[in-house]
């Protein structure tokens, strides 16, 4: 192989690497980072739900309005600030909202299949909702949100569920900026 052919191959490989590596970083690494953020947020939501459940439930009885402590709102406001929660709801096993940081939602019923087929059967359910898109409950959000449903299990059965919203706008922007900066540096 001649020196010119060798140099041409090196330049061609370099050009391909210059294009492929940044594109790979943007289209594959960024979604992987968002997935990690989602998984970490889901773990935090489960920890908060466990903590709240220990405050609320003393016996393995189904959650209902009458079983909630009077000072629950005060404790939840403290947790909202401490853990940067955007919103919190508590559901009965029938899907009725028995507590919400938005009092107008109390009494509404979640009839969606993901709630009854996944959450009330004992599994967590998480969704990333982008700014300007609707949540599972058809609410339009003005920030990037991770909504996580966490079942509350007592005595081997689900007695209710928590829905926790986290504002991840800043974290998502930081991750995207990191990915794009690293792509530009690679380019």
Describe the protein's topology.
Layout: H1 3-56, H2 72-83, E1 85-91, E2 97-100, H3 113-119, E3 125-129, E4 145-154, E5 157-167, H4 169-186
In short:
The chain has helices at residues 3-56, 72-83, 113-119, 169-186; strands at 85-91, 97-100, 125-129, 145-154, 157-167. By secondary structure, the chain is α+β, with helices and mostly antiparallel strands. Helix 1 runs antiparallel to helix 4.
Word description of this protein:
With 187 residues, the chain is of the alpha+beta class. It has helices spanning 3-56, 72-83, 113-119, 169-186; strands at 85-91, 97-100, 125-129, 145-154, 157-167. It has four helices and five strands. The chain has a single domain, classed as 2-Layer Sandwich (Beta-Lactamase). Helix 1 packs antiparallel against helix 4. The protein has a five-stranded antiparallel beta sheet with strand order 2-1-5-4-3, sandwiched between helices. The longest helix has 54 residues, at 3-56.
Distance between the termini: 29 Å
Number of helices: 4
Question: Count the strands?
Answer: 5
Largest sheet: 5 strands, antiparallel
Helix-strand makeup class: alpha+beta
Question: How many structural domains are formed by the residues?
Answer: 1
CATH names the topology as: Beta-Lactamase
Gyration radius over CA = 23 Å
CATH C-level category: Alpha Beta
Average pLDDT, rounded to a whole number, is: 80
Keywords:
alpha+beta, five-stranded antiparallel beta sheet, Beta-Lactamase, 187 residues
């Amino acid at each position: 192989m001649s020196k010119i052919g060798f140099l041409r191959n090196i330049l061609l490989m370099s050009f391909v690497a210059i294009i492929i590596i940044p594109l790979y970083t943007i289209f594959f690494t960024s979604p992987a980072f968002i997935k990690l953020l989602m998984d970490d947020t889901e773990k935090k939501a489960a920890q908060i739900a466990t903590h709240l459940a220990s405050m609320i439930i003393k016996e393995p009885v189904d959650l209902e309005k009458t079983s909630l402590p009077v000072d629950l709102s005060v404790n939840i406001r403290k947790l909202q600030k401490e853990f940067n929660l955007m919103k919190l709801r508590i559901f009965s096993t029938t899907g009725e909202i028995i507590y919400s940081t938005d009092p107008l939602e109390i009494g509404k019923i979640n009839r969606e299949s993901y709630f009854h087929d996944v959450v009330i059967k004992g599994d967590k359910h998480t969704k990333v909702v982008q700014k300007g898109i609707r949540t599972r409950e058809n609410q339009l959000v003005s920030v990037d949100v991770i909504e996580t449903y966490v079942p509350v299990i007592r005595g081997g059965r689900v007695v209710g569920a928590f829905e926790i919203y986290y504002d991840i706008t800043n974290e998502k922007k930081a991750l995207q900026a990191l990915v794009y900066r690293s792509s530009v540096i690679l380019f």
